[in-house]
Every structure is written in structure tokens, then in C-alpha cells.
Design brief:
Blueprint (H helix, E strand, L loop, with lengths): L5 E10 L5 H9 L18 E4 L3 E7 L2 E11 L10 H15 L6 E7 L6 H15 L7 E6 L1 H6 L4 H7 L2 H9 L4 E3 L8 H17 L13
Parallel strand pairs: 1-4, 1-5, 5-6, 6-7
Antiparallel strand pairs: 2-4, 3-4
């Protein structure tokens, strides 16, 4: 945390190629810090840090408004079209050591709401996160379901979507204590919509007692 008038949360974006990971980071920051566009190959090859301005109207403490600052580390996707698993993990560890020396509040696993989560893909992703974050990864991970507009266009409310979701996705959500957010990152969201999402993220962090996950530093 910063001074008594600010709260800073450190977030890590993880996900497969073309899930809308970088676009989601831009939505949360309210900026265009991260490169994001349609591509037949993985766009992000290096980690990059984005910082929000001081955000007001999100949290109050002892009757006084506290400003929120968000720091987001965008990462190369895994699987990656040109980097090995080991190369991606090394790059993420290096960036975490450089930018989040004090630790990580929450990793956001970005999945597409309009693409079924298959067991093999899930197993591969979970193994990657476990190796990266360690045995307590579930306490420090939330799921960000992007392209929620596609689910809405198909007639699914959030409740109906979860009622018909695959057992693989439901098991994943259960393992991370149902920390999930639906996000339509294909259009500009309003200030109020962004504030609602940030409140949910802050609530996840608060329920974890603002704990920071300290990760092993990687040289190089």
C-alpha cells in the first residue's frame, strides 16, 4: 500500500493468445498502455507495466474517501506462438521481480466467455500458473471472462451462462473461491462500469486481507 490516502493494488494478467488479455488491461487502467489488436500470432512478447491515475469514488475508509491506484503487469500469452513455456515463465518472473518487488495482490487469468474451456487447455493453464505462483496460487488468482458481449448476444445472462458452463470452468471457478468477473472489452465502458469492476477486484483483495504473494526473484 502507498500512503494513508491511497491504496495501490498489483495485478498480473495471464492468459492464452487472443483472449483479449491486453485489451482487458487497458480497460481496467482506463488507458491504452498495452498493445492490442487482432493477429494470427501472439502479439505480446515482453512484459510491460501499466499504471492508472489516482482513481476516486471507489473506496471509503472511516468515512473518508481513499484513492485507488492500479498497477497491471501484462505478460506474453501461454501457449505462445514463438516463445517456449520456459521462456514465458522466465520473462514473467523477471518482470515480477523488477516491478512488483513488494509482491502481487492478484493474478487475473483471462479466458474467453465465448469459447468453451476444455480439460486439456485448463490443465495446461493451471500447471503453468502453479509453477509460476506456487502452491497458494488459488488464493491469489481470479478469472476474468472477456467477450461477455458474445454471451449476451447469444441470450445468456451471467446466471444462465454459469448454469450451462462446462464442468471444467465451474471447477476452476470453485477452486479460486468464485473470484470471477465478466468483461466486455470490445467496446468502451463507462466510468461507472469501470468503477464497478475495480470495486469487485478490490473486494477480492480485501477478502484476502490485502495479502501480497511474494515470489522468487529471477536474475537476468
Amino acid at each position: 500500500m502507498a500512503d494513508s490516502n491511497d491504496i495501490t493494488i498489483n495485478l498480473l494478467l495471464l492468459g492464452r493468445t487472443q483472449t483479449g488479455k491486453s485489451a482487458a488491461g487497458n480497460t481496467l487502467l482506463g488507458s491504452y498502455d498495452f498493445k492490442s489488436h487482432l493477429s494470427p500470432s501472439s502479439v505480446t512478447t515482453c512484459c510491460s507495466l501499466g499504471r492508472s491515475c489516482r482513481i476516486s469514488g471507489i473506496i471509503r475508509r472511516n468515512g473518508r474517501e481513499i484513492a485507488l491506484r492500479v498497477r497491471i503487469l501484462d505478460t506474453p500469452s501461454y501457449p505462445h506462438s514463438s516463445l517456449s513455456k520456459e521462456q514465458v515463465q522466465h520473462e514473467v518472473r523477471r518482470a515480477l521481480a523488477l516491478h512488483f518487488r513488494e509482491g502481487l495482490h492478484l493474478a487475473l487469468l483471462v479466458l474467453r466467455a465465448d469459447v468453451p474451456l476444455c480439460p486439456d487447455d485448463n490443465d495446461q493453464t493451471i500447471q503453468f500458473i502453479q509453477e509460476l505462483l506456487g502452491p497458494t496460487w488459488k488464493d491469489f488468482t481470479a478469472v476474468l471472462l472477456t467477450h461477455a458481449d458474445k454471451a449476451e448476444e447469444a441470450g445468456f445472462s451471467e446466471h444462465a451462462y454459469l448454469q450451462s458452463a462446462s464442468s471444467t470452468l465451474l471447477s476452476l471457478l470453485s477452486s479460486v473461491q468464485h473470484k470471477y468477473i465478466f468483461l466486455d472489452n470490445q467496446k468502451s465502458i463507462t466510468k461507472e462500469e469501470r468503477a464497478t469492476i475495480l470495486r469487485k477486484l478490490l473486494d477480492f483483495v480485501r477478502k484476502n486481507d490485502y495479502q501480497l504473494l511474494l515470489l522468487k526473484h529471477t536474475k537476468g
